[in-house]
């Protein structure tokens, strides 16, 4: 997989000869397996009889014709996206295969002999002296404690990576369910074609490259794309408490997205009688003092200083250690600000809280 030019410098390898910049996703990165698996899942999604796990693929069919068709579609998709296959490791037209530690045949899924041989070949105790009976509390017996809480359904046993869990959490807090979003996205005039494009694994350029698909729902970055039918429901949820235009936009930018969402928020606030009544008479609030963070880089504060000698300076201050980062800038655009923040985050990690004074270059478009 090709790595975005802005991310290539973060994968620089220091060797005894020189520095090497990785242009493709390499082994050893913490997020590489999840990124690759998500890519192949989207690439082969919807193809009957095709299942891919990492670099292993299984293609099945109920008869020879369906098997040939699945193989043809699989090879065509691999050719379109430049995926190469190892012929020496490939097996064709098998009645049974070993896949991910299981044997698969016409009768279903079976345990392989090597997986259960240790249990089958275990010697049978002949008398009570061969047992060591020891009483242990539940807290000291982790295996038994784990098995006593073992989920019952296969869905509960499904392992999800951190990114998937975070994205599903974004959906769960909305006033609509993921099932409703999935069903309506396919019918939506704007999201329908985009959903099909993502499922087919086509390359998206520019801002469209930020769209991803998770559990049938479309996300723009970390924000959930809302179909036209449910936009009014989400707007009403954002407007609960009459927070005002600025706070509503900030809240929306953390969770939801659709085209012209900012304009819809502005219209909703302008047409609200309660918001208009209290607009010029806001309630006085007590002076807020920031709590001292419990660890470095938990909360950072950013602002611009200048102009000084025809330059503006982006200041980043860690509230815990008071560490200061300064970036000289000739232009204070959103793009340039994001580049500076990415450089800082690459060295210190992502902060839990970022505080700014809502200045325009720091805003998210």
From TrEMBL:
Origin: domain of life? Eukaryota
One Gene Ontology term from the biological process aspect of the record: DNA integration
- Integrase catalytic domain location is 292-365
EC class of the enzyme, as a word: transferase
The UniProt entry, under PROSITE patterns, shows:
INTEGRASE
Classification via CDD domains: RT_LTR (cd01647)
Q: What is this protein called?
A: RNA-directed DNA polymerase
Tell me the organism's taxonomic lineage: Eukaryota, Metazoa, Ecdysozoa, Arthropoda, Chelicerata
Q: Which gene encodes it?
A: K02A2.6_243
């Amino acid at each position: 997989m090709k790595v975005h030019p802005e991310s290539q410098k973060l994968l620089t390898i220091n060797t005894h000869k020189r520095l090497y910049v990785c242009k493709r996703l390499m082994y050893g990165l913490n997020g590489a397996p999840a990124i690759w698996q998500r890519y192949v899942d989207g690439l082969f999604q919807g193809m009957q009889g095709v299942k891919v796990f990492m670099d292993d693929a299984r293609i099945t069919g109920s008869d020879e014709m369906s098997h040939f068709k699945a193989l043809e579609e699989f090879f065509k998709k691999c050719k379109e996206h430049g995926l190469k296959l190892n012929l020496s490791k490939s097996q064709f037209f098998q009645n049974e295969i070993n896949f991910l530690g299981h044997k698969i045949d016409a009768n279903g899924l079976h345990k392989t002999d090597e997986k259960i041989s240790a249990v089958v070949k275990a010697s049978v105790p002949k008398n009570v002296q061969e047992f060591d009976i020891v009483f242990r509390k539940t807290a000291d017996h982790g295996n038994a404690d784990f098995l006593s809480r073992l989920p019952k359904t296969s869905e509960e046993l499904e392992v999800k990576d951190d990114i998937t869990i975070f994205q599903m959490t974004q959906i769960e807090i909305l006033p609509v369910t993921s099932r409703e979003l999935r069903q309506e996205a396919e019918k939506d005039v704007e999201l329908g074609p985009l959903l099909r494009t993502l499922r087919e694994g086509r390359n998206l350029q520019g801002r469209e490259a930020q769209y991803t698909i998770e559990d049938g729902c479309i996300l723009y970055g970390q924000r959930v794309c809302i179909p036209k039918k449910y936009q009014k429901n989400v707007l009403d949820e954002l407007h609960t408490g009459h927070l005002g235009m600025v706070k509503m936009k900030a809240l929306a930018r953390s969770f939801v997205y659709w085209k012209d969402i900012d304009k819809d928020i502005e219209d909703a606030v302008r047409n609200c009688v309660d918001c208009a009544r209290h607009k010029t008479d806001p309630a006085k609030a007590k002076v807020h003092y920031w709590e001292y963070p419990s660890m470095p880089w938990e909360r950072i504060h950013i602002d611009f200083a200048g102009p000084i000698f025809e330059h503006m300076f982006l200041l980043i201050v860690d509230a815990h250690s008071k560490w200061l980062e300064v970036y000289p800038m000739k232009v204070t655009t959103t793009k340039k600000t994001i580049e500076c923040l990415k450089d800082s985050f690459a060295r210190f990690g992502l902060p839990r809280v970022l505080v700014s004074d809502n200045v325009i270059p720091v805003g998210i478009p």
